[in-house]
Amino acid sequence: xxxxxxxxxxxxxxxxxxxxxxxxxxxxxxxxxxxxxxxxxxxxxxxxxxxxxxxxxxxxxxxxxxxxxxxxxxxxxxxxxxxxxxxxxxxxxxxxxxxxxxxxxxxxxxxxxxxxxxxxxxxxxxxxxxxxxxxxxxxxxxxxxxxxxxxxxxxxxxxxxxxxxxxxxxxxxxxxxxxxxxxxxxxxxxxxxxxxxxxxxxxxxxxxxxxxxxxxxxxxxxxxxxxxxxxxxxxxxxxxxxxxxxxxxxxxxxxxxxxxxxxxxxxxxxxxxxxxxxxxxxxxxxxxxxxxx
Length: 293
Known about the structure:
alpha+beta
């Protein structure tokens, strides 16, 4: 082959093997190239040549890591609004970032600068996602549980002054156990913690107010409630006939009715069931149990 044929041959070979290697033009610009040049060019084509496209290794590894992170959280109830969970919105944003990185990785002709930028962006998205983890403060619930248990353990049931009605004491114990069960849950939301604190605090206040007490300088007066069971009107009789304050509370401590300066209360509007009646006179505070039917 003459120089012209050789040049044409090498031009075609270069186009086939090195589509984007512009340096190849150096070897074929002159039709006066010698066989020595042709030999050198052939060796150039045969050797390992640096790619014009970027290395996808780091990006692929990071995409896989991020995919695994999201899958693990989904499989282990790690997505939600509770403690130690990640918000659904944060997960969606993170997955969008993963998808964007995947599109760059799918581009076989992506340059190294594009790949590096994709790695940087995905690492940043991962850090933001990890920082979005919900942290719920259980301290207030732990405190009210501790206070309630101390109160319960330092008191006793009975009908003497300073003692507590057995039914109210049972309700208080159940409220404490319910709060402890809530506290043990792994992914509580702030609203759930607040609700548990409110419920146990109410039960504790009911318990405190149910204590049999006598006002200093006074003496306990006979108090009679009738009828019991009651269908509509409940009457309260005291020895001196002085009107009293009557409070009707549900078994969980909710105030259902309250009458002041009276000796009766109409219960016809409340559902049937067991209730706690708290009677407050000018001398004492008493608690009774009644059945509405």
